[in-house]
Design a protein that fits this description.
The chain has helices at 38-41, 43-54, 192-196, 199-202, 225-233, 238-241, 337-340, 345-373, 390-404, and strands spanning 59-63, 73-78, 81-87, 93-97, 120-121, 128-129, 135-137, 173-177, 180-184, 212-221, 254-256, 263-268, 296-301, 305-309, 314-321, 327-335, 418-419. By secondary structure, it is an alpha+beta fold. The protein folds into 2 domains: 59-173, 3-layer Sandwich (Rieske Iron-sulfur Protein), CATH 2.102.10; 198-419, Alpha-Beta Complex (Naphthalene 1,2-dioxygenase Alpha Subunit, Chain A, domain 1).
Length: 426
């Protein structure tokens, strides 16, 4: 079959919002084609995707360590919008658009990590807001910081009475799970738990809220963010791209681990020791079941996060799209305090950092080659490989749902761990 004859040579922007555009990816995975290459290369697709996907989903923006105490803040970019995330005096998460209600100036710089006096203050005219977003100071109206002998110059007599209560910051829905912080730009969104599906139950004994960051690093991909995710969620490429990885995560030990929710799930069981102890160097969390003490769980959280959970460490990846062909990937290595109590823990962590850095560098090289290839004129999509690319098929269809305006949660598998290969015992 000549796939280039299945699609028009060019799409109009409105075509990206039509079900018909994706009919070949909507087929069952055994006969489906990958999503159209414009999904990775088109500026028009990227613009619509920012609105329909990132502007209408729970998006990972950071972790609890970034706002550990009241007054801590960070600034995130979501769907082209600058968002302030903070923690109030009661320890609750709050999020707001990074814009003053007076003249629309952006209030906090992207590198701000804490606000003095538990106030978010506008740098232009010094309007101030508390950590719940309430307006608490408006120079030239009332509670002015202007010297008393100069206030007559700014007499507001004759104007309607100004009420600070009418001008809070524009709020954004914010929630957390497993130490990760998510925001949703939509109005009255469904709860985060609905998008997560059964993941909170599956990870209950891991006590994810207790894990802390031990290392972090940023990587840059000259590729679309979806290619980073799709590369993460399939293991067809492992023998050729990651020879080190398959020593601890053997191809024949891969299973689907898929429940309902906006995610894809895989597992390796059992974890292999590898040459130098591999992923097993640190002790596991004490509350894990026998199978969890021997399993690696790999979760892609739609739309922008990868969660690699071992019995003794987590490697978390957050992808931030910066145009159709550039992705900033923030990564964190986390450990539970129990694992850090072991002798030689820091040396084991250094080895893990070296290992995950190698894996990411290998991925950068191959993913950037895919981005370049998708721009070749004859390529209009390729055939899914059934056994290896079911997760890719699942996540591409979740993306299509968002693009065409469908809100639904896909089902999971009927069994807990579904083998991906025919296994011969003995």
């Amino acid at each position: 079959m000549d796939y280039k004859d299945l699609y028009p040579e060019t799409f109009k922007p409105e075509d990206f919002l039509k079900e018909e555009t994706y009919r070949y990816t909507r087929a069952g995975v055994e006969s489906a084609l990958t999503i159209i290459p414009e999904a990775y290369t088109s500026e028009e697709f990227y613009r619509l995707e920012q609105k329909r996907v990132f502007g209408n989903s729970w998006v990972l923006v950071g972790i609890k360590d970034m706002v550990a105490k009241p007054g801590d803040v960070f600034v995130a970019d979501v769907a082209g919008q600058s968002i302030i995330v903070t923690r109030n005096k009661e320890g609750e998460l709050r999020a707001f658009y990074n814009v003053c209600r007076h003249r629309g100036v952006m209030m906090l710089d992207s590198d701000c990590t804490h606000v003095r006096g538990s106030r978010i203050r506008c740098p232009y005219h010094s309007w101030a807001y508390d950590l719940n977003g309430e307006c608490i100071g408006t120079p030239l109206f009332e509670d002015s910081d202007i010297p008393e002998d100069m206030r007559g110059v700014f007499d507001m007599g004759g104007v309607d009475k100004f009420q600070k209560e009418d001008y809070p910051l524009f709020g954004v829905s914010v929630d957390s799970w497993g130490g990760m912080i998510f925001v949703h730009l939509g109005k009255d969104p469904a709860p985060l738990l609905e998008q997560l599906g059964d993941l909170p139950q599956r990870f209950e004994n891991y006590r994810l809220d207790e894990w802390t960051v031990v290392r972090e690093r940023e990587f840059i991909f000259k590729s679309n963010y979806k290619l980073v995710g799709e590369n993460y969620m399939e293991y067809y490429h492992l023998p050729w791209v990651h020879p080190e990885l398959i020593k601890v995560s053997r191809m024949e030990d891969h299973y689907r681990w898929q429940g309902p929710g906006l995610y894809t799930g895989m597992t390796t069981w059992p974890i292999s020791a590898g040459d130098d102890g591999g992923w097993l160097g640190l002790p596991p969390v004490s509350t894990l079941s026998d199978i969890n003490r021997e399993s690696a769980r790999f979760i892609w959280l739609f739309p922008n996060a990868a969660l690699s959970v071992m019995p003794n460490h987590i490697f978390l990846m957050m992808t931030k799209p910066d145009g159709p062909d550039r992705t900033v990937e923030q990564t964190w290595l986390l450990c539970h305090p129990e694992s850090l109590e072991a002798d030689g823990a820091q040396e084991e962590i250094d080895q893990l950092v070296e290992f995950w850095t190698l894996v990411n560098q290998q991925d950068i090289d191959i993913v950037e080659k895919v981005q370049a290839g998708l721009k070749m004129n004859p390529y209009r999509g390729g055939r899914m490989c059934y056994h290896f690319e079911e997760p890719v098929h699942r996540i591409q269809n979740i993306l299509i749902d968002k693009m065409v305006g469908l809100e639904r949660i896909p089902d999971g598998d009927a069994v807990e761990q579904q083998p991906m290969f025919n296994r011969t015992e003995g």
